[in-house]
Specification:
The protein has 339 residues and is of the alpha/beta class. It has two domains: 174 residues, Quinone Oxidoreductase, Chain A, domain 1 (Alpha-Beta Complex), CATH 3.90.180.10; 130 residues, Rossmann fold, CATH 3.40.50. The chain starts with a strand and ends in a 6-residue tail after the last strand. Its cofactor is Zn(2+).
Length: 339
């Protein structure tokens, strides 16, 4: 089979690899569509310590089941399926209290085991969600990042309240859509790229560049300010601006992993009793809800996402890295005429 392999910083290559053999509790999935995640771009740039080359990345994907292990039941050959790439052990203390997303022994497809930037991938059968055959595969591949956003929104936003989102990339736009479905009132999205802000405006948000963020925040929220900020960027500038922008007693949900370390005005955080909450991946419930929202057509990738082939993806990574990419989201198609 063909696979796109990460070989080191800014190094990707198409290689021929053996089709994986599923274990007794696994299924073999023929990949149809797989999204390029911002975290994989960080890996491509050599900024992700957990992605060790040579590695087949890819964790946002949809495909069809072509083989099942001896102990697998409830799945059929030919089923279209979305895969939850987060593999929790189910037995550690975190799993036992329902916090499988921070499982002490967690693995992620495309990081700790071969991923979906390949024609076939073997995954635990328990992580497979069958979906209708007519569901668009490109849309289905958004389930994983949408689950990330649902989890983040739940950690900070109360229904019918206002929200500020930093970032209009894929996670920012999906966070916006998730927040809207969960009852957000007014939403302000801040991003450096005006083209990305056009997409956010289409989904009902007010938008601003960082230079106009304070003015836009005061204009939209007035003296009430904003109690919840979700940072989908995660760099010094957005983290510090969030700390300075949120109301006293407010909550900042940190999703973005753009920078490992940041200097923050912690005395201000203490004196204003600001909560900074890390948000990592999702629960099984969040993932199921993401699949349901996509199946119901309540979240879309139209206008802000596009597709490419496996070979083309090498150039797409380069374009994303240098800022010349025209779309927020790129989805790799591995089948002709994929839907």
């Amino acid at each position: 089979m063909k696979a796109l392999v990460y070989l080191g910083a800014r190094q990707l290559a198409i290689e021929e690899r053996d089709v994986p053999e599923p274990k007794a509790d696994e299924a073999l999935v023929r990949v149809e569509a797989v999204g390029i995640c911002g975290s994989e771009l960080e890996g491509y740039l050599g900024h992700s310590a957990i992605r060790v080359p040579p590695l087949v990345m890819g964790h946002e994907f949809c495909g069809s089941i072509v083989r099942t292990g001896a102990d697998v039941s409830g799945l059929s050959i030919g089923d279209k399926a979305i895969v939850n790439p987060l593999v929790s052990c189910g037995t550690c203390d975190r799993c036992r209290i329902g916090r499988g997303n921070v499982c002490r022994n967690r693995q992620i497809v495309g990081i700790h085991r071969p991923g979906a930037f390949a024609e076939y991938v073997a995954v635990p059968a328990a992580n497979i969600y069958p979906v209708p055959s007519e569901m668009d595969s490109n849309l289905a591949s958004l389930a994983e990042p949408l689950a990330v956003c649902i989890h983040a929104v739940k950690l900070g936003l109360r229904p019918y309240e206002d929200l500020l989102v930093y970032g209009a990339g894929p996670i920012g736009l999906l966070t916006l859509q998730a927040a809207m479905t969960m009852g957000a009132n007014r939403v302000l999205v801040v991003d450096r790229q005006p083209d990305r802000l056009i997409f956010a405006k289409r989904f009902g948000a007010e938008v601003a560049t960082p230079e106009r963020a304070e003015e836009a925040r005061e204009s939209l929220f007035g003296a009430r300010g904003v109690d919840t900020i979700i940072d989908c960027v995660g760099v010094q500038a957005t983290r510090e601006q969030a700390v300075r922008s949120v109301n006293p007693g407010g909550t900042i949900v940190a999703v973005g992993l753009g920078q490992d370390q940041s200097l923050l005005s912690m005395n201000h955080v203490v004196r204003q009793e600001i909560s900074i909450v890390g948000s990592y991946t999702y629960s099984d419930e969040d993932f199921e809800q993401a699949v349901r929202l996509l199946s119901q057509g309540k979240v879309t990738g139209e206008h802000w996402s596009t597709t490419c082939g496996l070979e083309e993806a090498i150039g797409v990574f380069a374009a994303l890295a240098d800022g010349s990419a025209k779309f927020s989201k790129y989805i790799i198609n591995l089948l002709e005429g994929v839907r």
